Please model this.
Amino acid sequence: MAALFPVRLLRGYLGGASSPADPRVLTAMPSNDELRDDPGDVADPVGEQGRSPLPWVVRKHDDRVLLLLTKRCHLYCRYCFRRDHVPGEGEDPTAAEWGDMLHYAKHSGARELILSGGDPLAVTDARLFAAIDAVRPEVPVVRLHTRAPITFPQRVTSALVAGLRRRAPVWVLVHANHPVELSSPVREALARLVDAGLPVLNQSVLLRGVNDSASTLAELCEALVELRVFPYYLHHPDAAPGNAAFRLGLAEGWAIYEELRGKLSGIALPQYVIDPPDGSGKRPVSDML
Ligand code: SF4
Model:
């Protein structure tokens, strides 16, 4: 299975789990379900292939440019939609690709640089900072889309935080799906980012059997607000081959969201969005019903 999509388990992340039904176990441990073909599978679930002007670059909007800094992650979420990662094969851009992608971004005319992956915090601080510095001042706003503060909070070092602070405006978009992920080390890592003045937002994915209940999501969003993290998006799951067990239908997801809406204040309620396979970019699920 690891030959199809890497497996990496972290003691710090999984150590607090006491049962196989724990959300951290369900999302991190590989399952035979991943080997099953499903009629709903989509090879390019969010339509990135047709929107990639050169390797490691995705361009869906004029004002934004997305760079994949690496395919590596600290932990591989079994529901992930980017599953084209074969360990040891092209996990990182070559030196020429790195130069080309940064040159493209700098001259793209975009206002926002989105650093993604893989996990952009799986690269060194020096490489991360070099990527940001390479596009400034032409691209003023940087967004760091990372799950590291949740899965590997030790990555949020004082040196990383200080380097990001010096490069403000840098927005940090983290990715927590369930309140049990908000352990003490995670809370401390999020506080380090917020205390440094970095805007921190959260994106969750709605996952069958993991967080598909309004009460669980409400608990997560309320906890995030207390941590000064804005619950920005609730993503409808993308239909990548191998993740069918985590998927649920639009009507089912919408019913959960309607219930969630009744439980939360405006600052705690995420937008429920879907990233369709046509590559047009995220839109509210309400538009698709
Ligand atoms: S950290 Fe993000 S990119 Fe990496 S496996 Fe998880 S969801 Fe996918």
